[in-house]
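Check my protein:
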Amino acid sequence: MSSLECLFVAYRLQPICPIEGRFGARGQAEFPLRALQFKRGLLHEFRKGNSSKEQVHLHDLVQQLPKAIIIGVRKGGTRALLEMLNLHPAVVKASQEIHFFDNDENYAKGIEWYRKKMPFSYPQQITIEKSPAYFITEEVPERIYKMNSSIKLLIIVREPTTRAISDYTQVLEGKERKNKTYYKFEKLAIDPNTCEVNTKYKAVRTSIYTKHLERWLKYFPIEQFHIVDGDRLITEPLPELQLVEKFLNLPPRISQYNLYFNATRGFYCLRFNIIFNKCLAGSKGRIHPEVDPSVITKLRKFFHPFNQKFYQITGRTLNWP
């Protein structure tokens, strides 16, 4: 089927357009067009719970456990990555963060509770969820391993100091919204008694990526992880998404057509088809407060050896100072 024919089918909101299957040649697998995944047609009714059991059976839609999880990191670009991967017709995303593996109360509800939090999908599709706290929560690697020891794990990272400041900025905004005061970043990131980096500050600890990854490697081989460059995803999203497609054994379907730069917002928005476009929430891309350059220098010097070890373990070198 030509691109023009596919667009015509999409416009008519027909349900199927053949693409290469995950495990076979072209035409062996079929996936619903993205148009059916956005507040139109039966799939929207499934998500709202308004469809009959007969309809579910007829259309072979199921709630599957995820075959891949975006496990972190916080303020690394997890939401952007999830939404961009959702451009692929073989990917179906969980809309909300489930917090199953990092929340004792949720985890106690069992794996079927978790499954029922997943969106409806076709058996050939990949369900993906993201919960950024998974990466830094000690119990999570073992819990995910017990569910699926061969699951694929996505970690999206940004330059550690920038990520820490972004983390601080989000918390600061929440405090200001509640008319609460908050310390300056410099006072939190630097221990006033020693004048060294404060490793007890959560925003700093989260950015020591190698420490968290080493805990995951006790359960999963490095081949089951893929590192996404969150800084590059902002400026050049397509090459990063193509690497993820390859890691997930998906046929290449995300193209430059699906990504367009919004000058007003300052980052890329998504084009699913000739009908449906989407930009990330306005809370994304917050303006960071000015931080003392000497503190930034001290943080980058502190993170440097951890970054080098992270590159060595993962086999991916990133352009961090």
Notes: The longest helix spans residues 293-314. Residues 1-48 have pLDDT under 50 and may be disordered. The two ends are 47 Å apart (CA to CA). Residues 144 and 208 are 22 Å apart (CA to CA).
